[in-house]
Specification:
Helices cover 63% and strands 1% of the residues. By secondary structure, the chain is mainly α. The termini are far apart.
């Protein structure tokens, strides 16, 4: 970038004089290259017919940072200005005074209603989801990539509702909409692996985007390279083991992976490691995919006769079929515990009684033995006499 061409602009009169002077062709043997000098006047060539050439401005390239904060600024003068003391002016300060009014004057004198803030928030949400800054190709392909998630989620809810509804019913309209329970169960077993497999592919793809961005870089940055390669590997490590998990745990793990990758992509956009629009773009797509996963989880929770139905509010509130009465259950456990404690007490009392009886028997036997021995001793003494 050229630093300055001011000297050409400062000497228009010299250029005009040079243009007005007559010129004549020079012989080839008399022509010699002209050299730029620092003389203020025009450059003259030694030739038979005089010719005036305007001064040549040397190109000054900004290879070094100019001295001072900015070119053509005096640091000493700025230092003096910075050392001046600020003078207070209380009369100019009011409750409505603000620096912002000098740059953004408020034209409206009336206060804005409370609904105005809500409208601004809605406009912000609308601008966020409109994705006006996103290029056309990733915008279309990104939204198209969410369609399989939405389709599988809606199908899961429909099949769950079908499994929780008696078929055939008395209504011909509902009979035409619903399918047999066997068909619904088979379709649900097909849709679930498709949703999990597609989710694993998309998570791996989101990690691979960072590898592509790193391959396109022309300069090396260890922190950026480590971040991009780490995200690419971590996405695949999290995504594919979810295919071996139960359905509910797998969907929850993929939801967490999508959220984690969104925060990583938003951080990359802030640090200029991704396009500026990529953070908002990923937020919208993550919101759509997350909503689809939540819908699938809700549908999965309602599958089976023991689960609450997806329709019929009155049944949901009053029907307790398939639900355990925990109050009665705890009462039964408490009663069993009481009986166990009572039985242990009775056994301890019986054991104590038996021990007492044994002790009484032993004492009686000892006294009887001693009595017999004393009687035998008396008989022997009497015989000797």
């Amino acid at each position: 970038m050229l630093r300055s061409t001011r000297s050409l602009l400062k000497s228009p009169s010299r250029v005009a004089i040079a243009q007005k002077l007559p010129t004549s062709p020079l012989p080839k043997f008399q022509l010699r290259p002209a050299t730029a000098t620092t003389s203020p006047g025009p450059i003259l060539l030694s030739a038979r017919s005089p010719r005036v050439i305007p001064p040549i401005q040397k190109a000054l390239y900004a290879t070094k940072t100019p001295s001072g904060l900015q070119y053509a600024r005096d640091p000493e003068e700025e230092k003096k200005i910075g050392q001046r003391k600020l003078e207070s002016d209380p009369e100019a300060v009011t409750t409505e005074s603000s620096v912002r009014h000098f740059y953004e004057p408020d034209k409206s004198d009336t206060e804005k209603p409370i609904s105005h803030g809500i409208k601004e928030d809605l406009e912000t949400v609308k601008d966020t989801f409109s994705l006006t800054d996103v290029p056309k190709e990733p915008y279309i392909l990104g939204l198209a990539g969410t369609l399989p998630y939405l389709a599988t989620s809606i199908s899961t809810v429909y099949l769950s509702w079908d499994l929780n509804t008696e078929w055939p019913t008395t209504s011909n309209f509902i009979n035409n909409i619903l399918i047999s329970h066997d068909s619904a169960r088979d379709l649900l077993n097909i849709i679930e692996p498709i949703q999990l497999g597609y989710g694993a592919i998309i998570i791996s793809f989101l990690g691979a985007i960072h590898w592509g961005l790193e391959y396109a870089e022309k300069t090396s940055d260890w922190e950026r390279t480590r971040f991009r390669y780490g995200i690419g590997v971590l996405a695949s490590v999290i995504a594919w083991p979810t295919l071996l998990m139960p359905m509910d745990f797998a969907l929850t793990s993929q939801f967490a992976a999508f959220v984690m990758l969104y925060f990583a992509d938003a951080r990359a956009s802030v640090r200029a490691w991704a396009p500026s629009w990529y953070g908002t773009y990923r937020f919208v797509l993550t919101a759509i995919v997350g909503t689809a996963i939540v819908i699938s989880l809700i549908g999965r929770m309602k599958v089976g006769d023991a689960k609450p139905r997806l329709s019929g509010l009155n049944e949901k509130i009053h029907d307790r079929r398939g639900e355990e009465d925990y109050t009665e259950k705890w009462q039964e456990l408490e009663e069993k515990e009481r009986q166990k404690v009572r039985k242990e007490k009775e056994e301890a009392e019986e054991r104590k009684k038996k021990e007492e009886e044994n002790k009484v028997k032993e004492t009686t036997e000892e006294t009887r033995g001693k009595k017999i021995e004393s009687d035998n001793g008396k008989e022997k003494s009497s015989e000797k006499e």
